[in-house]
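Q: For a teaching session next week I want to show students how multiple molecules come together into a single three-dimensional assembly. I've collected the sequence lines for a complex. Could you give me the predicted structure tokens for the whole thing so I can convert them for display?
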Amino acid sequence: MPKLTIDNLEVTVPEGTNVLEAARILDIVIPHFCYHEALGAVGSCRLCAMMFLEGPVKGVQMSCMIKAQDGMVVSSTDPTAVELREHVIEWAMTNHPHDCPVCDEGGECQLQEMTVAGGHGNRRYRGKKATFTNQDLGPFVQQEMNRCITCYRCVRTYRDYCGGTDYGVLGSRNRIFYGRFQEGKLESPFSGNIIDACPTGVLTSKPFRYKTRLWDLQEAPSICPHCSLGCAIVPGGRYREVQRVRAGINRETNGFFICDRGRFGYDHVNHPERPREPRIDGQQATLEAALAAARERLAALVEAHGPDSVAFLGSSRASLEANALLRDWASAYGSTQLVYEAHQGRDYAARTLAAQVGGHARSLGDLRQSDLILLFGADPLAEGPMLALAIRQAVRDGAKVVTIDPRPVVLPCAARHLPLMPGRLPVLLAALGQGDLSAFDAEERALFAPLLDQIKAARRPVLVGGADLLGGKGVAALCSAASALSTTERAVGVMALLGGPNSYGGALLAGDGPGFDTLLDAIQERTVRALVCLESDPFCEAMDPARAQAALGHLEMLVCIDATPSLAAQRADIFLPVRANVEMAGSYINNEGRLQEFLPVIAPGLPIKETGAGNHPPREFFQTTPGSAPVADWWLLAKLLERAADLAALRRTMAKYDERFSMLSVLAAETSGLRLPVKVVLPPVADRELPHADGSDNQVLLATTGPLGSHWLAHLSSPLAATEPRPYVCLHPESAAALGLAPGDRARLTTRFGHCHVEVRLSAQMVNGLVLAPQLWDTALEGLAPGSMHDCRLEKETKA
Amino acid sequence: MDIGIIDEIIDKHGGESGALIQILLDIQGAVNWLPKEALARVSEKLSVPMSRIQHITTFYKTFSLTPKGRHEIHVCLGTACHVRGAQDILATVEEVTGVKPGETDPDLNFSVETVSCLGCCALGPVMVVDGEYHGNVKPAETAKVLSQLKLTETAEALEKLKQSETAEVLNLCACQ
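A: Of course. Below is the structure for the complete assembly, covering every listed component.
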């Protein structure tokens, strides 16, 4: 631990810390552009110059490039260093336009801050400035190349950190241009990070362009609602709409970056069709009336048909507090019909993980340090993109990655792929745990046997699983394999990608309750007559939507509490609007058991639109804000239970569900969250998990999670929805040849949900004998719950 | 352009991504510029992203992403050449060829480039025509330059002798 003196203050820092970081510990801010904690030091911007007075190095040096050593005496205020920094800033500014008043970066521009801090206020350069033609980089990133100061941070972020290959630096000297080799959409699913990385206004968010001056933006720390990883985000809102999202910093989860789904998937909050008013039997009502109606009707049903006639469906999208109150509500009626996820596979996967993962749980931060990562039925780019980025960082440090999956798994780094049928994944996990591969034929043994040696040789191995393909049984096998393969010297880690941001929390509350299939049976048999859906859509999320729709038709009453225009919200007898997570405070538990808090960014209300037709400012005035009826989900449930709606008081009582929830009282936003302590219990065993497919039709179809824009919340977000693909199926070249299909062909896909015209794509990586089709909303592929298997028929379409 | 030439060059270097710059140099030498199809082929065969290839080809002045003329003329504008009237040489070159620095004429006859130093300042002003250096390009040296080029035979060339020596060299090139 070297001890050094910076500006007459002594500081002891960990070995390997650079002087710039050491100064930051002392709250001494040294201006810098190219240094970034996640990207490392390159010493190219020449701005972090400090004077080294005593110690092993002397003179003016770049503080990011010098490791702190004992006995160093460093000055950040030495006149020579200050003068150098002044000149460097002046050079950086030679070509920079004076367009700050119209620049979208104005207000959070690092260049502006450094220029002012560096004392450069008078441009002496009178020559011509370098000017460039901007490229169209697609729907997410806006380029304004004239503002570039060539700090190289975008390329280091995009290529080195995120693994993109289609963006780079061109030219030399005054012609340096950062861009693509030709105009077009940035291909990386992490492209938005270059917006955060750019210290000035060269790369800004296209959907956010010209919307708001940054000092007018309301921001608060939040948690991304798009997948189960729980990345830190900072949404910004103004005019009652969420206008952008930037990455928050959490070294345990996302680090400094987020994926494009998290960054551009905020628009569901502003969705024009979002239901904002309470409704009773299709008629708009006051919140009090709707609450009273829900209470009365449910009570009447319980009175007439017994406590189990009312069922409750929680959600992985709703806050932990609301999900807990839902359990209270169920027990208030004495009902045991309480389920927390309509997707049975994900439900049991989450519950099994929460019960069994114990000390094997690993965070994304741990993943980045891992040296061997095996992915079983997990497709990170579709199910939890930031996991792919964490894996890439591990690979950059020399880790090996193997994906075992029926789908072609694409990662932004080198990885070995072994195709395997989904049903065989738990078998392989069990076999690896026992070290006995006799269940596999010689050819497969030759492929899988090296995995055992690799795991034995690895120091920090992690087994990653995906809930969609593994289900409860697979996740149980994943956890057992991890404990069986652990030795006293080193434990084998586990990470599973779950359904939603609070799947883990829901799983803890669900305990050994019934699964959604059992609930559907009860509805079909008329034992359950009413269903309360908290921020979930059983019509679309169930593994077998056809069966769910048929069963749910028997319901006498459907209560829906939601913030999105879901099918359940449209069909509900009583609808109660709630806030999206950016509009309220609450907490989620992510897929590694990390409890994290989010805070409200904006208050709900219809976004204010300027039409330019002379109606701004608005001429109509109301006592209340239009569209402000939605309340926080926990607030609504507390009111339904006729309790005081006080978040702090509610959190104090939550230890009764699980003693580990007592940590809620010390939880704070904008921290790295709190990992729940280990508690291993026996997991519930699902009666059945996957809809059966026997190939009796022609082919077996495996539903997959589609790319960025194909998730429910992403689908409701206009910037992402624009990137949604058209329906397609993916085939192994051999199966395609057998069907007489070539890539790019149009084909007709028949499932029991109907017909769909699809484009044929081929992948030699995928397992032979399956048809892969993504779930895509508002298409005939909507009913394909990820992980479910169906019989299907695929025929080539002739040009008629 | 024949894509076979490109494949040959790539194969000559064993299709190694490490030989990228050498491959690009060879293509530049063989076809006089780097056509888009050639770069796409290199990207595909070497498994190198297109952005990386463009990163290199736009960095080095040796590489040209636009077709070059049959005759390449480099006029030195370095300090030594500048004080000895390189600007006048360049102006003459522009006037005679009708091509501005960094450009090529539509008939692909001439490409004119300026350079900052050719390492032979004592010979300034210096001009390079198709790889041949012409030092001290002023009237006294005209005969020498022309004899080096062995172009004095044509009557046209003799006619041009009356004009500025720089213009002459260039015009003769055009006749070649």
